[in-house]
Amino acid sequence: MKVLKFGGTSVGTPDNLRVVKDILSAGKEEKQVCVVSAFGGVTNLLHECSDLAAAGDESYQGLFAKIEARHLDTVKELLPVKSQSGTLSKTKILLNDLEDIMKGIFLIGELSPRSLDRVLGMGEILSSNIIVDFLNSEGLTTDWGNTGAMIKTDSTFNNAIVDFSSTNQNIKDFFKSSADLVICPGFVSSNQDNVNTTLGRGGSDYTAAILAAALEVDTFEIWTDVSGMMTSDPRAVSSAHPIEKISYQEAMELSHFGAKVIYPPTIQPALDKNIPIKIKNTFRPQDAGTTISADSNGSKQFVKGLSSVKNIALLNLSGSGMIGIPKFSFRLFKALSEAKVNVIIITQASSEHSICVGIDGNDVEASRAAIAEEFQFELSLNKVNPLEVEEHLAIVALVGDKMRDHVGISGQMFAALGENGVNIKAIAQGSSERNITVVIQERHLKKSLNVLHESFFLSEKKRINLFLVGIGNVGGTLIQQIAKQQEYLSENEHVDLRIVGLANSKKMYFDEEGIDLSKWKDLLLNGTLKMENAAFIQSIQNMNLRNSVFVDNTASAEIAGLYNGILSKNISVVTPNKIACASSYENYQELKNTAREYKSKFYYETNVGAGLPVITTLNDLIKSGDRVKKIEAVLSGSLNFIFNNFKPGVKFVDIVKQAGEEGYTEPDPKIDLSGVDVMRKILILIRECGVEAELSDITADSFIPADCMKTKTNEEFYAKLEAHEEHFQSLVKQAEDNNARLKVVATYDDGKASVGLKEITKSHPFYILEGSDNIVLFNTNRYADQPLVIKGAGAGAAVTAMGIFADIMRIANS
Ligand SMILES: NC(=O)C1=CN([C@@H]2O[C@H](COP(=O)(O)OP(=O)(O)OC[C@H]3O[C@@H](n4cnc5c(N)ncnc54)[C@H](OP(=O)(O)O)[C@@H]3O)[C@@H](O)[C@H]2O)C=CC1
Ligand SMILES: N[C@@H](CC=O)C(=O)O
């Protein structure tokens, strides 16, 4: 024997009812007891209609007509014409009865809990009767089971308590001689005087569970409009998926905290008789659904699901007069209970100086009044402080039987939330360790659920949300590389990398779901949002996405000045822009400290040597206890390119322009040719070694005539270089005469750093440095005889974008 329950959506339309018929037909080899809800939406309409009637509002009649039409139309659409009349008259009799009750409510202007039960239960009575006739007309011999009479309760109207001994006997008696298919109304019951009661909203699940337990069936199925209990709320977490197997206790925890697939009291009768409950999707019967049973059948997943509840308020009662006084908590809970306020979570620290309770946000005023009254005396003596109330909060809970077997789950939970800037207001965990609950601000709920889902479900892809400013040579290449790699990263690295914000100096564009990278240029350039730094940052904050990373691909000091604020919002920063790390030592250090304090990441590997692993290698040396004694390096890709290609007969300015076209120079080439770019790089390297230096501490000999440096535009600069052609020709000629090559070399030795153009002879390792390559030699305590050498392309969009990409992936993998 099998008990099935179909909810409001499953029986909501004639088409859906035909699907239900197919499911019942497929199971007809077995005796089936089928509990149905009211047609979808009808219970709410009945409630609204009776409220209007009680308020003396005649418009209740219009609403009633709508309810009536819904049922009569369903009969006409479902049943063949020849079998309609009997069902129509039966339905009309029930509706007339209901209309009389509504009229009575209207006339006396009152809706008692008892009348409400009478009205609301009619939804199930009507639906079940129509369904019985429909199934019979389809050739399935079907009885109607009067659960309203079978299930006996006390007289707590609207949420009655079941008397199991009489109920179980009634059920057994009825089903001894019933047909092989019986349709029963859910939700309805009656007291010992046969007055209608109901089992509480969602009570149809409970009806089915009572029948399943009384009949000790093998199978109990709840058919609904989702494919089982989900790992999280799918409206917030797009990758939430059905949980295949779950224990009774886990299901209770999840359904108490927001996973509304099953009405919580349903589980107890099934648990008492050890009957597995299957949650199935009426519209996707092929899906496995969720099986709730005594244990989660060897599942290895220790966090089974996340649940959440919105609109939570925290009440914090504190005071010196509370410490060591046993009755305080009793009085607090008594006051709340008398005010009919349900306490959702409780936390109290061992100091006993305060008790914090979480309640439904709608109960704040009632709680405030009740607590003020209860503690009037203590408040007047300042033994209790005025109640602190914090609203607009949400609960998030991790649920899983096996959490108790794993150390560090709460640590993982708090770290994941903390790294994403989510502050935890309160925590509760019982000794069963089956549920770890935190209270957070409601505006962080979606982000928190996603962060936790990513953190605890192994199959999950980690989503990284990128905000890119600067889409020129380097930024544009980075976008191309990301577009090309997205699929690979998703499949092989479980990283879902999306660009959600883009800007150049004029426009900005956002798409929370990820910008379509096949047309990012059109989207940005034809967009209407003007780029403003404050608005860009505000949008990042408003979107409040998990794992947000700000990528600065500009050479702008203004954008570099935003990093500290961004890092302090728990948003990581990745940048090839050297301005921040080469600004004052104080600012450089503050950025590192902010990143550390807020657990955001600040990565700038491409500041030195573009894509070459210079900074990470240096960091590895330092962290492992090595000491850098000397650095010798060629750190400018553009200058190396220029001096490698500047030969007699070639104009210096043309080579400089070519270096720009190849993407090696800075947006302002003066920065390269003046040596400032190399000064910044050596400064960054020695700072990473722990030296507290400023840019002004680096000595530099410029080979550029002073008037070149006074130009404002690149064109003026090129014109001045052309005017000084002879100067540059003489430099190269002199080097050639000395059998040497020109290189701009950065040196750090004996605590001093310098940058200058040098003639490098054949015996030096820098002599053969080709193209735009960089080279760095680190002499350290461990690399004492031979330096550690890093060499390779040190400029260019492709290698720089790759280095930025690698920094982003370090964040994704952290
Ligand atoms: N080229 C290389 O080999 C390497 C470069 N780098 C660094 O990479 C960075 C980018 O260089 P590159 O791509 O060549 O430069 P580009 O000039 O090609 O691109 C700069 C981009 O930044 C934008 N931008 C400038 N100022 C702002 C602002 N205030 N707000 C928003 N966007 C702005 C520009 O927009 P718009 O077009 O509207 O002005 C443009 O999209 C530089 O910091 C450079 O030092 C680092 C290592 C190697
Ligand atoms: N302009 C720079 C590019 C990298 O920082 C260079 O020439 O090396």
Automatic annotation (TrEMBL):
Q: Name one Pfam family in it.
A: ACT_9
**One GO biological process term:** homoserine biosynthetic process
- Highest rank taxon of the organism: Bacteria
Q: Which cofactor does it need?
A: a metal cation
* Keywords noted in UniProt: Amino-acid biosynthesis, ATP-binding, Kinase, Lysine biosynthesis, Metal-binding, Methionine biosynthesis, Multifunctional enzyme, NAD, NADP, Nucleotide-binding, Oxidoreductase, Sodium, Threonine biosynthesis, Transferase
Where's the ACT domain? 398-473
Q: Which InterPro entries match?
A: AceGlu_kinase-like_sf, ACT-like_dom_sf, ACT_Aspartokinase, ACT_dom, AK-HD, Asp/Glu/Uridylate_kinase, Asp/hSer_DH_NAD-bd, Asp_kinase
Catalytic activity as recorded in UniProt = L-aspartate + ATP = 4-phospho-L-aspartate + ADP; L-homoserine + NADP(+) = L-aspartate 4-semialdehyde + NADPH + H(+); L-homoserine + NAD(+) = L-aspartate 4-semialdehyde + NADH + H(+)
Pathway recorded for this protein: Amino-acid biosynthesis; L-threonine biosynthesis; L-threonine from L-aspartate: step 3/5; Amino-acid biosynthesis; L-methionine biosynthesis via de novo pathway; L-homoserine from L-aspartate: step 3/3; Amino-acid biosynthesis; L-lysine biosynthesis via DAP pathway; (S)-tetrahydrodipicolinate from L-aspartate: step 1/4; Amino-acid biosynthesis; L-methionine biosynthesis via de novo pathway; L-homoserine from L-aspartate: step 1/3
Q: Which residues cross the membrane?
A: none
A GO MF label: metal ion binding
Q: Which family does it belong to?
A: In the N-terminal section; belongs to the aspartokinase family. In the C-terminal section; belongs to the homoserine dehydrogenase family.
Q: Which NCBIfam families match?
A: asp_kinases, PRK09436.1
Query: Which PANTHER family has this protein been placed in?
Result: HOMOSERINE DEHYDROGENASE (PTHR43070:SF3), PTHR43070
Oligomeric and partner information:
Homotetramer.
Sum up the protein's function in the record's words: Bifunctional aspartate kinase and homoserine dehydrogenase that catalyzes the first and the third steps toward the synthesis of lysine, methionine and threonine from aspartate.
Put simply, this protein is called Aspartate kinase
Q: What is the lineage of its organism?
A: Bacteria, Pseudomonadati, Bacteroidota, Cytophagia, Cytophagales
